[in-house]
């Protein structure tokens, strides 16, 4: 998703920089992360993640309380918090 956002919403300069990064051999991940942050794409991704997490947790509220429901809730929250 970050690269789709970069292509759709990134500035021309950022898109050109992304293409330059692809041609380099070292430090790609760090350069790409910096570019995504500079373009505000990282923040946009966080907002989108939180929106989907909130909707998922809200949907779980429709299920009768159980250990399984709690596990799903914890797993979803952990995945977003841990991998962000």
Brief write-up:
This protein is mostly helical. It has helices at residues 2-9, 12-23, 28-38, 41-60, 67-82. The chain contains five helices and no strands.
Features:
84 residues, mainly alpha, 5 helices
Written overview of the protein:
By secondary structure, the chain is an all-alpha fold. The chain has two domains: 2-39, no CATH class; 48-82, no CATH class. Helix content is 80%, strand content 0%. The protein is built from five helices and no strands. The protein is elongated and about 50 Å long. It starts with a helix and ends with a helix. The mean pLDDT is 93.
Number of domains: 2
Total count of strands: 0
**C-alpha Rg, in Å?**
17 Å
Order of helices and strands: HHHHH
Q: List the total number of helices.
A: 5
Average of pLDDT: 93
State the shape: elongated
As residue ranges, the low-confidence spans are none
Alpha-carbon distance between the termini? 13 Å
As a percent range, the share of helical residues equals over 70%
Content-based structural category: mainly alpha
Percent in strands:
under 5%
Outline the biggest β-sheet: none
């Amino acid at each position: 998703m970050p690269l789709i956002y970069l292509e759709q919403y990134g500035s021309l300069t950022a898109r050109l920089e992304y293409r330059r990064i692809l041609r380099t051999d070292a430090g790609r991940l760090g350069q790409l992360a910096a570019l995504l942050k500079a373009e505000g794409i990282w923040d946009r991704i966080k907002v989108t993640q939180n929106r989907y997490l909130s909707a998922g947790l809200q949907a779980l509220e429709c299920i009768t309380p159980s250990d399984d429901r709690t596990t799903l809730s914890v797993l979803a929250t952990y995945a977003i918090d841990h991998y962000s």
